[in-house]
User: Fold these one by one.
Assistant:
Number 1:
Amino acid sequence: KQEVTQIPAALSVPEGENLVLNCSFTDSAIYNLQWFRQDPGKGLTSLLLIQSSQREQTSGRLNASLDKSSGRSTLYIAASQPGDSATYLCAVTYTGNQFYFGTGTSLTVIP
Amino acid sequence: EADIYQTPRYLVIGTGKKITLECSQTMGHDKMYWYQQDPGMELHLIHYSYGVNSTEKGDLSSESTVSRIRTEHFPLTLESARPSHTSQYLCASSAHNGYTFGSGTRLTVV
């Protein structure tokens, strides 16, 4: 069974801080990794996709890195804002078919 | 702008009723999925399809069924709804550029 772990489970930071969310996976032979955000009661919104041949992807204040050899990915959020408050999920796929999801990190940014 | 659509967005229904949750995508993706998620909990894969006339059960046992007669359409059916089916149901499709999710259907069975 493929396992995806996200640490911490919950995080609370003051507005303006830079922060890092962590994702680890048991099998390094991934096809790609995707980061999502989920607002309460809503679907998942894709943030960044990293292909297995890539080491990082950037979108605005978000930067995701991938280290396959250590089985880790990090999502860096710069200058956090209250609107960033949500649950962040990472998901990995080994074949391009089914994705395996982590349990998420619940982020609260305090104004 | 969503390329994958789920209807209804919210549904409250009585025990024993038959319901169908709709999911359609306009991206031409072969792969489609249904996930079940309780509030604050992780996603559980209940059904998936890798193309027309192909459906498989996921990791979580579910009393629902699915069909895939057209590439763009992947409906989920509960023949007899029960309170234990109360949950959020999320539909997704995927291609080489990853997953795209719908907004979900929040189902309440009373």
Number 2:
Amino acid sequence: NAGVTQTPKFRVLKTGQSMTLLCAQDMNHEYMYWYRQDPGMGLRLIHYSVGEGTTAKGEVPDGYNVSRLKKQNFLLGLESAAPSQTSVYFCASSYWGQGYEQYFGPGTRLTVT
Amino acid sequence: AQSVTQPDIHITVSEGASLELRCNYSYGATPYLFWYVQSPGQGLQLLLKYFSGDTLVQGIKGFEAEFKRSQSSFNLRKPSVHWSDAAEYFCAVSSFGNEKLTFGTGTRLTIIP
């Protein structure tokens, strides 16, 4: 049982490049989330999903897209990376059973130059 | 809308001393409350949660927290801190029918010998 995994762990992009971050969970959770973490700002929700095939915007969705084609996977895409997207990205999953307690992945550190 | 305030950005405590980290939330209905810990370079790990029932909850690593509805607080406590407790601590809130967690901005804990 690996829990929540994220790929890759580190990435450096040039401005304008695109990339996809992959999140996978093996706990059969309905809900999945993408956050970004910046110093002094805590965690901010980018997008989330309440089930396979559904996604919704969070607090800071601009510049990002997501897809949830399979229940266990949640992809975060950057179509044209900007330096402002330099951050640490966390994926999480949850279920209703314990008040939407979220389980987090180890994070992806992204630098955009 | 629900919100969480962690008024202390940074706290320094001597090893062996007691600890209290403050968390205040704003929400009209019964909240579900969480404390997470993040060690440097790591993802977030759940310390404890209040879902229902006893307002004093015990967590991992010797931590506890008390839900006080009258004060809208969910403060985290530990009677004697260890050097390994140095980390960032996040309080979070959700509620029935709301699958999103709202996080505070975090409190960084430094332990001195």
